[in-house]
# Entry
Amino acid sequence: MTGARVHSAKRGTAQPADGGNTVAIIGGGLAGMSAAMRLCSAGFDVTLYEAHDRLGGNASSIKRVVPGENAPKTDQQNADKTAIEQDVYPHMFCDWYDNFWDLYEHDLGRKRDDYFSPRQGVSMLRKGDAQYSRLLNNTSMEALVENMQSGLLSPAETFLLGYSMLDLAAHPFDRSSFDQLNKLDVNGFIYSRGYSTENVAEMENYILTLIWSIQSEETAAATYQNFLRHCFKFPDNSPFSWLLKGSLDKQLIAPLREELEKRGCRIETGATVSTVRLCDDRPKIRWKRNPADKRAHVNSYDYLVMAVGPAALTSLVMGGDEHTSEGKRLISCEQSLSQLQRMSAVPIPVVDVYFKHKLDLFPKDHVGLGGSKYGLTVLDISQLWSDHDFDGKTAIIIAASDAASIPSASCNGQGWLMLQELKEFYPGINIGKHWRDPDCDIDWHRTNARSNVDYPLFLNSVGSWGWRPEAAYPNTMPRVFFAGDLCRTDVDMATVEGAVQSGFQAAKALQKRDAALTGKGIRGPEIRVIAHTTYSTASFRAAKLMLMPLAYGALAMTAYDQWKAHLAEGATPLGKAEFSLSEYLLLVPMQFTMDWLKGAYWLVRALSDGGEDDPLKTGILYKALPPVGDGDGEHRGQTGAADGDAAGLHAGDDGHEDHVIDLGAATLMALGECASYASKHLSGDMKKADGTPVSPAVAAAGSVLGAAANIGGTIISALQKQGGSATDPYIRRWRAKR
Ligand SMILES: Cc1cc2nc3c(=O)[nH]c(=O)nc-3n(C[C@H](O)[C@H](O)[C@H](O)COP(=O)(O)OP(=O)(O)OC[C@H]3O[C@@H](n4cnc5c(N)ncnc54)[C@H](O)[C@@H]3O)c2cc1C
# Structure
């Protein structure tokens, strides 16, 4: 231990010292570990407290010891035993998780390709179907066309689904000015669109339920907008996400722990912190090592980072008696934290199913079971975990995103119901007649049902932005910092990246505060938080305007198809149709005109005033920033300057010229993608996909577009060299694409 403050678990006390560098971090999830990593590197003396005997929280794995393969039923005590790891859930790590990749690749020194497997999207299976539909991230023309042909919805409605997401990404939300608008939910947003249909709204609800366990009418539209903006990259040839080739513990958490210990972090697992108090601003914690400790320990620190989930945070901030000799409660110092009580989180029931033999039923992607009443997803880990020996047999993980719809309170009860629903989609699987029925395809020794009740998933419900803690409260609690996926970050949605970014933000804010309090300057190397690169607001709005005629055309096609179907059923033309003739003929064109004019207005605002309405300006979402010239070709380095005086976030220079240049660059990139798709599919041997020849004019048009896009790329490249403008991500992707 190197800090100025001497503290000891045995004595349970600590000696205060001015200018000390001791930090307690409560919570050993990804947020707490990320904060610890950065603070240790900066030279702080860090102790990490984790209530469970394992680190990782939502991203942890449990080790289960199961009887060995040949264990006789009568002597299982002495039979050879095998330890197997079971994840809370096998996570998807999006390609744009820049802070997470920084942690993994730079801090751990691990190459992404060695430990992760890339995925372009997810698969979907409907009941009764033998074939999976694939849903890809719309990052290329190929993906767009494949999605439209996926069969999930009609091509026209699939287009409308994608368009509604683009529309949401372009919508003017401004958290600093429009408090009530921020309480708009995703479903409400979709219904307010002139082009939306019931199927589009239903599919959006299904997607949200599946990936975030929250219905679209409960999801904050502004939050979803932030997530979508990070995902929208067109064109882009990087994968949508990456899956670990092994368990979370083996490939992520254990290496993180090892590195933390190397950097001098003291890790207390099985140590639950029960109270936090402030004495003259200095944090004091009471904790107990479970279950061995008879008495609690009390330790004081110079700084404190709270990195726990909603329920634990509320209890630590508000719990206990206000008037004790141990000091003040946090809520007495910062009353806005009472809003934490509004935050909600849900457990996700999961079943690890090990089969007695190999089943060739599952693809390599995550699979969403379309129409599943429990919101089931499936992943075949035996095709993914290359570091585990499955002995040629299949093992899958089933998760229920909609836990509230499962009519059972016990883990095994939930597990059995989930298996029964799985069978409805895969009738060939024999699950037996009851949980642990030996006469079936399932190896019950290894199969396990559980739920993350101890660290449930934070829900980004409508209005929650206003309740979420900031990284720091310098005026009221200068020595206390907050991290965790529930904190305000530009990612916004509860994700691995949100957790890691929040940890870095808290560490950065702490480092800055330490410099201010000690007056000795920044301790250690300056902590960086990587700014995400997204398309500019103007680009989203321009794309929305450009594609709007197609969206309303797709609506007209949908209405026509439905109308035809009703006629075919013998109904009156307008009987059950979703669109009445008057709406179809009169209202829709009016809606289109209004929508287009409003869109044009917001585009002009984004271009002309640098985006007063633009969340990028308010520090909620980072602007695309120029790279630091570290020569590795990555767009990393510049931080959002989490200074702890606000949410710990600041936007980059977001000048008016950059908006215009960004828009030009983005337009050229999109045109280039269309041109290369056209030339790939229409030129060359001059044949269409069905083998019929195409007109030379079409191929020539494709080539001309491609050449124009090339010239545009070169011009922007030259501009970028001169001015170092914010266009870099587009240039980078442009080059990567080529
Ligand atoms: C089923 C599921 C699937 C998910 N899938 C994905 C995915 O595919 N992609 C993705 O990006 N994200 C996913 N997530 C979200 C992601 O896992 C979380 O956002 C992230 O791990 C949260 O990290 P955290 O550190 O903020 O919080 P947590 O992981 O909740 O960590 C908090 C820690 O604090 C500890 N703690 C609590 N109280 C105390 C106390 N009093 N004293 C000491 N310690 C305490 C807890 O034990 C816990 O370890 C998923 C989450 C779940 C539940």
